[in-house]
């Protein structure tokens, strides 16, 4: 083709080709909802992925595969029969669940079969992540119900009753934890204000025999300080409404319906979560008797009642709070109004200012609530946890607070977003980076797919000795009054050159902004050091230890040594230090298990049913690396199935024989077998090919072309067949 002036036509550019493919793909919009696996999308771009998810959401299809990840879009309304028992049984009995419609039950079943099918079962972890309001808590509920159903469906009649009891108790832990640990926020009506990792314990027959709950960083500041237009914890509103409680109970707990409390905003707003009777029934099923329940609710009535306790010390409010605590009103007033200063061997009593009285009152409410939450968690664990000898493997469910960015963010949001950064890094290390390195080691022609690595942000927050956390801990341990301005200046001095932190020069409040993987967040420094210190006056501990309430006496009976010890530089254990240690323990557990990822997506910021905002969704997809995940899966090994062929049986038998012969010489090894080579010769001679396979489980990967999926029977293939390139047998730790 010639152009004017004799110039040749330039060859089409790569961008022109991509735009052509994009137009060709999007031209048939009626078929976009049929893409149940985004690795089938061609080309893979943010636009094509977004269009497919929008089409599926419009068709009320809320789950979609994205390589190793399941994408779950929150419908914000009940969907009939989507999680019924019949659906659970359908996925549990399916020969190949991956070939069924995408569903959260596919992820659950894959993890369950991994425990069942491996010669040496490996513990599994289901990581549910997403923004606040994306549906993580609901997804965790569905997963627990699935395992409580399929792991309890035993044909052994003599054990059926015991299994039924334990699976009922495991499920009953959910409404209790949500009542005492969740709250209504601007972004979510049932927002988890703590993180939890639930281990579902399985015996050698893979039946559910117990569970344990590990909690992380309860947002106890919400007890005494609720952000604008948000509510306190659900339990306060449940007890206040108390539709199932008698008039005597309401009077005893000082929570009559007609009363108003400063710490219970939005009390007129009724939610589905305000179900007091459901909480009471769950507590009864877990073995918390009615008299103990009365003690619990009496104590949990303290925070809203004590909100009205302040100088000039109204007698009615003071008597009410003292009655709930089980202490004389005079002692409660003295505890809040007078502090004890120790100078050598002498003790000096000093009256507190009006603001100090308020701080001590808030501290009393927070420390009571936090300790009782820990006691309740321990009671639940004692009720549902099996003996170590009764279980051998577990499936873990991780449900943590989602990424948060409010108008005002402080230490709570910094810790929450730090936890999400760690989980994102776990995903990056386990899949986005490790999978590509695996492909290269297997000899594939591979060009690395770029992805957002958040290691720089983690170095900023936790890096030693000049990260935000170490500097904050150092400032908190100094025996001096906190100064937000000085701490902000030190952050600028130490971290001014770091690319993930910035400051607004026109802001009048001390602050710093962190560029997280999900977007920038500005944190207010004022109050951050005090929250990190989390000091509890010894007078408060002494008051609670002297309480006539049996429950408080039990909870605070062993606190004396820690509370009365001198608080020198090395004695202060900060909130950040405790949270970081617990998070490191969690990451060790996750690294020791086989992870399964579910990305919950919030389709719109207002939680409106079946409303899809493109900008809201695309920001979440880009932040968590969904498009990069699809790229890597589609170009590498997107299809990973269980071995079902005759060769598979030979491999398993060979592995067992080799394990018996070489038990003392275990190590790590992998063998690459070219598909179709000598199929007739080695169909029954697996040992010749697998001489170096050692300890671990067998996992089969096979690569496909964009148009042809791999065959399930590799020994029937011949050399050069498009769509089946190679098989990898690898050790799974």
Automatic annotation (TrEMBL):
Similarity comment text for this entry: Belongs to the TRAFAC class myosin-kinesin ATPase superfamily. Myosin family.
Gene: MYO19
Residues that coordinate or bind ATP: 130-137
Gene3D superfamilies: 1.10.10.820, 1.20.58.530, Kinesin motor domain, Myosin VI head, motor domain, U50 subdomain
Name assigned to this protein: Myosin XIX
One annotated Gene Ontology cellular component of this protein: membrane
Coiled coil feature spans: none
Lineage: Eukaryota, Metazoa, Chordata, Craniata, Vertebrata
SUPFAM superfamilies: P-loop containing nucleoside triphosphate hydrolases
Segments for region (Actin-binding): 583-605
PROSITE patterns for this protein: MYOSIN_MOTOR
Source organism of this protein record: Gadus morhua
Residue stretches making up the Myosin motor domain: 33-640
Single GO term (MF): ATP binding
A single GO BP: actin filament organization
UniProtKB keywords: Actin-binding, ATP-binding, Motor protein, Myosin, Nucleotide-binding
Pfam families, A to Z: Myosin_head
């Amino acid at each position: 083709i010639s152009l004017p002036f004799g110039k040749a036509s330039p060859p089409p550019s790569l961008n022109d080709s991509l735009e052509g493919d994009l137009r060709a793909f999007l031209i048939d919009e009626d078929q976009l909802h049929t893409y149940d696996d985004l690795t089938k999308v061609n080309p893979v771009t943010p636009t094509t992925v977004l269009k497919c998810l929008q089409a599926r959401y419009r068709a009320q299809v809320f789950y979609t595969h994205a390589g190793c990840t399941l994408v779950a879009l929150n419908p914000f309304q009940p969907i009939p029969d989507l999680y019924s028992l019949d659906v659970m049984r359908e996925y549990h009995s399916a020969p190949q669940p991956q070939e069924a419609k995408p569903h959260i039950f596919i992820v659950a079943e894959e993890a369950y079969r991994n425990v069942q099918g491996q010669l040496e079962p490996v513990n599994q972890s289901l990581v549910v992540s997403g923004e606040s309001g994306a549906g993580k808590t609901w997804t965790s509920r569905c997963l627990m119900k699935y395992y409580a159903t399929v792991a309890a469906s035993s044909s052994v009649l003599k054990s059926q009753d015991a299994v039924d009891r334990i699976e009922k108790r495991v499920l009953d832990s959910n409404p209790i934890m949500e009542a005492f640990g969740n709250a209504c926020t601007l972004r979510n009506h049932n927002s988890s204000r703590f993180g939890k990792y639930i281990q579902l314990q399985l015996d050698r027959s893979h039946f559910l025999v117990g569970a344990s709950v590990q909690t992380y960083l309860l947002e106890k500041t919400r007890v005494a300080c609720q952000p604008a237009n948000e509510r306190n914890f659900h339990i306060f509103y449940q007890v206040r409404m108390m539709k199932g409680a008698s008039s005597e109970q309401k009077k005893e707990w000082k929570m009559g319906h007609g009363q108003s409390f400063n710490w219970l905003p939005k009390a007129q707003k009724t939610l589905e979560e305000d179900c007091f009777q459901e909480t009471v029934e769950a507590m009864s099923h877990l073995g918390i008797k009615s008299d103990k329940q009365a003690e619990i609710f009496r104590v949990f009535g303290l925070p809203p009642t004590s909100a009205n306790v302040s100088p000039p010390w109204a007698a009615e409010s003071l008597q009410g709070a003292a009655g709930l605590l089980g202490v004389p009103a005079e002692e409660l007033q003295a505890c809040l109004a007078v502090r004890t200063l120790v100078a050598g061997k002498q003790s000096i009593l000093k009256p507190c200012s009006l603001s100090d009285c308020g701080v001590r009152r808030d501290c009393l409410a927070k420390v009571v609530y936090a300790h009782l939450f820990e006691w309740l968690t321990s009671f639940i664990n004692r009720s549902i946890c099996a003996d170590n000898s009764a279980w051998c493997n577990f499936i873990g469910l991780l449900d943590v607070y989602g990424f948060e960015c409010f108008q005002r963010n402080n230490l709570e949001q910094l810790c929450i977003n730090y936890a999400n950064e760690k989980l994102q890094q776990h995903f990056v290390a386990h899949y986005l980076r490790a999978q590509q390195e695996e492909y290269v080691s297997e000899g594939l022609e591979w060009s690395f797919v770029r992805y957002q690595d958040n290691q720089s942000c983690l170095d900023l927050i936790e890096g030693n000795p000049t990260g935000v956390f170490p500097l904050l801990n150092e400032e908190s341990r100094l025996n001096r009054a906190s100064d937000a301005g000085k701490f902000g200046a030190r952050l600028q001095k130490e971290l001014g050159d770091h690319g993930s932190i910035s400051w607004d020069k026109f802001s009048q409040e001390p602050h710093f902004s962190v560029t997280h993987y999900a977007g920038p967040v500005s944190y207010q420094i004022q109050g951050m050091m005090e929250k990190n210190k989390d000091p509890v006056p010894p007078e408060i501990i002494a008051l609670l230890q002297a309480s006539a309430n049996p429950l408080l006496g039990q909870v605070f009976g062993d606190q004396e040594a820690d509370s009365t010890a001198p608080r020198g530089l090395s004695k202060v254990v900060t909130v950040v230090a405790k949270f970081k240690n617990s998070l490191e323990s969690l990451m060790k557990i996750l690294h020791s298990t086989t992870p399964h990822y579910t990305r919950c997506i919030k389709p719109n910021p207002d939680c409106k049913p079946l409303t899809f905002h493109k900008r809201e969704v695309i920001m979440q997809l880009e932040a968590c690396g969904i498009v990069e995940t699809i790229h890597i899966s589609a170009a590498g090994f997107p299809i990973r199935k269980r071995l079902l062929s005759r060769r598979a049986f030979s491999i398993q038998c060979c592995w067992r024989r080799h394990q018996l012969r070489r038990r003392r010489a275990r190590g790590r090894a992998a063998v690459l077998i070219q598909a179709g080579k000598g199929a007739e010769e080695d169909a029954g001679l697996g040992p010749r090919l697998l001489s170096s396979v050692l300890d671990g489980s067998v996992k089969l990967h096979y690569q496909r072309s964009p148009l042809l999926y791999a065959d399930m029977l590799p020994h029937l293939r011949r050399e050069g067949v498009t769509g089946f390139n190679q098989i990898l047998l690898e050790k799974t730790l």
